Amino acid sequence: NYVLNYFASRSKLVPFVVQALSQLLVKLTKFGWFESQDDNWVFRSITIDIKQFLQGSIDHCIIGVKLLTELVASMNQSEENLSLTKNRKISASFRDTALFEIFTSSLDMIKQVLNKKIDFQDQSQVSLLGFLLQLVRVCLMYDFIGTSFDESTDDFGTVHVPSTWKQTFLDFSVLHLFMDLYLVVPLNLSSLALSCYVQLASIRRSLFDINERTSYLQELMNGVKKILELPHALENTDNYHEFCRLLARIKANYQLGEIMKTDCYKEVMEMITKFTVTSLRVLHFAPNSLYYLLNMWQKMVSSCPFIQATDTHLLEQFTPEITEAYVTSRLESVKETHQVEEENASSTFKNNLSAEEL
Length: 358
What we know:
Blueprint: H1 2-9, H2 15-31, E1 36-37, E2 40-41, H3 46-54, H4 58-75, H5 84-115, H6 123-140, H7 166-170, H8 173-184, H9 187-201, H10 210-228, H11 237-253, H12 256-260, H13 265-281, H14 290-302, H15 315-357
Antiparallel strand pairs: 1-2
């Protein structure tokens, strides 16, 4: 209560103070998660207390969102001072009692910000939207089934949201929300919106029945098409990286036969082919992101033997151009490296010669 009251009375704290006090608050909450007094869970009311900040000024809203983000992230991390079993019990309890409410509240706040026609020249409004996007992303990156506390170790991992979350995704409004955000927000926020979209594309396929899964995949492919129709946004390296991850996640989560049945399959694959060829020809642009792009193509091609003869995947039209572009780009890279080495050697020789003459 002291920390929360301190935040409430000082909404203009510098970021590092907010960060330090947030960490203190969530540590106390996590370590006391199973502490009770008079049959009440003393520390579990924190989400209710933080929600009061969300009803205040924009500065208080930002503090509240930061607190929730820190809380979710802390509950998803393994504490060295707690046993593995205790860590998992706390994480699972938080998932079942608080996480969904935090997730839906963050979505509602994003919708409210957009409905008020956010002024992108107002830094406080832009900051609030950015922190809300970070909160949504950390909710979707939660370790729902206790497989790993380090999400970076499984970059093609599935988002195992509980079945009770299903209704939130069925009308596709969440997908539309983050695609609309990607298309309208400034570049410093668009990669965050796209990162959330990547997590939505990674939601476990078993959450949906066959018809729902088909419709959800169709919406994802429509989103890919919209992104490729505005290629200038992909000139931003963060957007480019997240888009490559999106393509890899879609193929990892869905079968080629399912992707082929989408309405825009041929058109989207033609656009992805052009995007891939362009990416390969630009040697030094986000080279680490190419892994995801090539991984997507590798999985597409390796799935061909399992496609029925009557179905047309059209990959024989797309892959030769990509193969040629890849080989050419590697040869150009070797040539460029050799030229640089020759220039460096020549420069070193001239410098040594000049030194001897002196």
